[in-house]
């Protein structure tokens, strides 16, 4: 394995034009979201990455101080770490730099939006499922012009609340991103009924 790719991950080659970066939720791993490929973009190359932080044995992408309160210094460090990993993966697997569409759930969605703000060139687009606001006092200044973001949160989600949805949408749009809001009536989860619309958005 090439230097920089020691982090646990799964690579699935594909012929599609849009490579997917899959980012799991707390307690998941690099296998958790692989089934989404068949629903979203069956031909897509896929890189699925395990979070580098352990919380009581559960993988995460960054530390939190308590439920709903994130360690923002650690977020910045982990974003830099993930961006470096992606650069190594692009060389190893022949992916055009910055061509990724991230698909993240919960903690994975949070690191995806933080990656957009911290390294705008690392992603082309992001699908944020059950996403919260990574930076309480506002994200790093970034120009997200031309970046596409789909935000799909549940109206009954006790964690990724309506306030989180509104604030994150405002932050992304203020930075120039083209944000599509695709809510559902459930809680902190992925609504399978919306996956055809997610697929249209990803490939459209």
Automatic annotation (TrEMBL):
Gene3D superfamilies: alpha/beta hydrolase. InterPro entries: AB_hydrolase_fold. This is Phospholipase/carboxylesterase. The lineage of its organism: Bacteria, Bacillati, Actinomycetota, Actinomycetes, Pseudonocardiales.
């Amino acid at each position: 394995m090439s230097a920089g790719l020691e982090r646990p991950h799964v690579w699935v080659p594909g012929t599609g034009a849009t490579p997917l970066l899959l980012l799991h939720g707390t307690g998941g791993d690099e296998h958790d979201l692989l089934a989404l490929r068949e629903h979203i973009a069956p031909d897509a190359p896929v890189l699925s990455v395990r979070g580098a932080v352990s919380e009581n044995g559960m993988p995460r992408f960054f530390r939190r101080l308590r439920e709903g309160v994130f360690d923002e210094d650690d977020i910045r460090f982990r974003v830099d770490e993930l961006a470096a990993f992606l650069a190594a993966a692009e060389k190893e697997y022949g992916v055009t730099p910055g061509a990724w569409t991230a698909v993240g759930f919960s903690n994975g969605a949070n690191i995806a939006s933080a990656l957009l703000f911290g390294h705008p060139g690392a992603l082309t687009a992001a699908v944020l499922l059950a996403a919260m606001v990574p930076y309480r006092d506002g994200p790093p200044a970034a120009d997200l012009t031309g970046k596409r973001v789909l935000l799909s949160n549940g109206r009954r989600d006790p964690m990724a609340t309506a306030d989180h949805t509104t604030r994150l949408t405002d932050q992304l749009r203020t930075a120039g991103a083209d944000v599509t809001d695709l809510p559902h009536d459930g809680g902190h989860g992925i609504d399978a009924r919306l996956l055809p619309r997610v697929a249209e958005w990803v490939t459209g």
